[in-house]
Amino acid sequence: MKQIGVIGPEKADKNQLEIAEKLGEDIAKRGYVLITGGAGGVMEAASRGAKNYGGITVGTPGKKRLMSNRYVDIEICTPVDIGDFIFAGILSCDLMLVIPGDAGTSAEFFMGIRNKIPMVVINAKPEMASFVDDKVVFAVKNAEEAIKKMEEAIKND
Asked: What DSSP letter does each residue of 32-79 carry, written as one string?
C-alpha cells in the first residue's frame, strides 16, 4: 500500500485548504495511506478529505499522544516537541504532495530532496522551482494535475 504525504502551511488560505482536502480525497479514493504532520491547516484539510472517503490517515504530532487533529487515525510520536514530519513523516512517504506556504513546509521540501523522496509541488515558490527536474520534483498548477502526476510517478517507481 502506497503512503502519500501532504505538506503545507498550518496557517493556510481558503484556496490552499480546498486543494489539500481534494488531495486527501483523491489519495483515499486510490486506497493509499495519507501521512501529514497531524496538525491544523493543510494537514487537517487533507486528513478530513481522506476521512470523507474512508481513507487511513497518519499524523506525526510530536512526543505527546492525542495532539493530532480529529481526522487522524494513527499517531506516530517522536522525541521532538512540535512534530516530526520532517524526519519520521518524510522517510515514511513513497511520494509527497507539496502546497508551499511557510518555513516548515520549505524545510520539509528540502529534506525530501535530500532524501530523494519524489515530490509534486503545486504552484512552486521561486526557491522551490529551481529544484524542479521532472525526475524527482515535479511542478503543477492545481490538485488535478498533482494527482495525475502522482499516479505517473508511482507507476514509474
From this structure: PEEEE-SSSTHHHHHHHHHHHTT-EEEEEEESSTT-S-TT-SEEEE-S
